Every structure is written in C-alpha cells, then in structure tokens.
Inverse folding.
C-alpha cells in the first residue's frame, strides 16, 4: 500500500482506554501527530487543564505521524483502528516559600560556646 492511499483508508480510529471508548469513532487524517491526538483527547475528556498522554496501536507507542506509524508497523488500515491512550506522570514545580537559613525546629548556630536557640520563624529566635 502506498503512503498516499493511507489517507483514504484509515477509517474511524477510536481512542480507547481499557477497551472503553473515550468518545465517538473519528476519521483521522494520516498526518495527525501525537501532540494533536493529545489535544483531541483532552477535549473529548473535557479536561480543564491539558494533561499529557501516550498513544498505542497494537501495544506499540505512536511517536510519529499516524500514517508513518501505520506503515512502519505494517498495521492494516482496512479495518477500524483502536488507539489506546495512557496518562503520563504530571510533574509540577512549586515555589519555595520558606527561609532556608532558619527552618522551624532547627538550632541556630552562634559563635563557639554560645547557647543554641530554636527558630520559630524566618529571621531568628
């Protein structure tokens, strides 16, 4: 099968998780990317914030355009395709809001021979 024929043969792929459809069957163009699938899926799931997902066809991750993936992995486009999605870990960075010089409960160090005190807040005893 030639690459240009793929555009007309990829019929009704469906995004699935654990064999439960995430939405209706869709006609997807052969040049759809994983980033575009992610945007589509976030819309279908009505996610308030964009979440990252990976996509798989027959247990092989889709890491390129859909048409190139199908050709490379010799997946028939004569039938409906099931595209399985898997949520990815979300890492968030939170700003530091504590003074690291004097953490609560940590002794303050003074000159040798001085008594230690404990800081209850940023800035000292």
């Amino acid at each position: 099968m030639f690459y240009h024929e793929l555009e007309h043969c990829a019929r009704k792929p469906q995004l699935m998780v654990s064999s439960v459809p995430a939405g209706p069957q869709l006609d997807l163009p052969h040049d759809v990317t994983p980033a575009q699938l992610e945007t589509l899926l976030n819309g279908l799931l009505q996610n308030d914030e964009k979440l990252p997902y990976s996509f798989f066809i027959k247990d092989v991750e889709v890491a390129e355009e859909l048409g190139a993936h199908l050709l490379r992995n010799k997946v028939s486009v004569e039938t409906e395709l099931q595209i399985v999605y898997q949520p990815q870990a979300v890492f968030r960075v939170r700003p530091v809001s504590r003074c690291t010089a004097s953490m609560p409960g940590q002794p303050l160090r003074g000159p040798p021979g001085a008594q230690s005190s404990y800081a209850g807040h940023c800035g000292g005893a």
Observations:
- The two ends are 77 Å apart (CA to CA).
- The helical segments are 3-9, 34-44, 66-72.
- The mean pLDDT is 74.
